[in-house]
Amino acid sequence: MAHIIVVGNEKGGAGKSTMSMHVATALSRMGHKVGTLDLDLRQRSFGRYIDNRQKFCAKHGLNLPTPEYRDLPEIDKDSLQPGENIFDRRLSMAVSGMEQDADFILIDCPGSHTRLSQVAHSLADTLITPLNDSFVDFDLLARTDADDGRILGPSVYSEMVWSARQLRAQAGLSAIDWVVLRNRVGAQNMHNKKKMGEALDTLARRIGFRVAPGFNERVIFRELFPNGTTLLDLRDLGVGNLNLSNLAARQELRDLMIALNLPGVTVDF
């Protein structure tokens, strides 16, 4: 059965689609069969990223390793059982249609709380939560005291992950490996950076996730999206000598793939 990776964060602008595309494409490049879903039915940023890749390859006669992408199937409401949610059925059918053949299924969730996102989290073997390195985004994970920064309790999102873990335990499934990524870690404001790291480490022990390095803010990520390409495609596209920023970004991706510690994956780039 496929290992299911869910990329979730209920705040927009954390780099979920960029993260999803790079993880899925890296796995494809390493020889794994990868299926993908985008549960943001309105914006489809991840889905459009893959669309851009397919069009770019067709236009230029390229054969870049590309994960399989599927939209959620349409369902006749009359086929639903009494009390069955249509989104549950659509997601279940999409996953079951890929899980027999795929090594991994990567599901990109919307930046808001939806029924689809809630169900997807309960399917996750690995949950990746990209987080901008600021206390504004830290609020996604926990409520803090405004005066001294003490952690008062988990956020609504963390409680949703806890519920997903309980559902998996009741079903006899393995525990979710929850990985929180520190994105856009800057060199400035070292005091805030240190406080953020300490707060994340404290919360990680309290509610059970791992902290891993993500991507720094780089222009290259905005330049890659229109063609559907990733950092690992640059040499195939004739970019022989990568600049220092591109090399650093590639190393960040390598560090991320190693940190995820996905089953059967040997990072070889």
UniProtKB/TrEMBL annotation:
Coiled coil: none annotated. InterPro entries: DNA_Partitioning_ATPase (IPR050678), MipZ (IPR015223), P-loop_NTPase (IPR027417). CDD domains: ParAB_family. Pfam families: MipZ (PF09140). It comes from the Bacteria. This is ATPase.
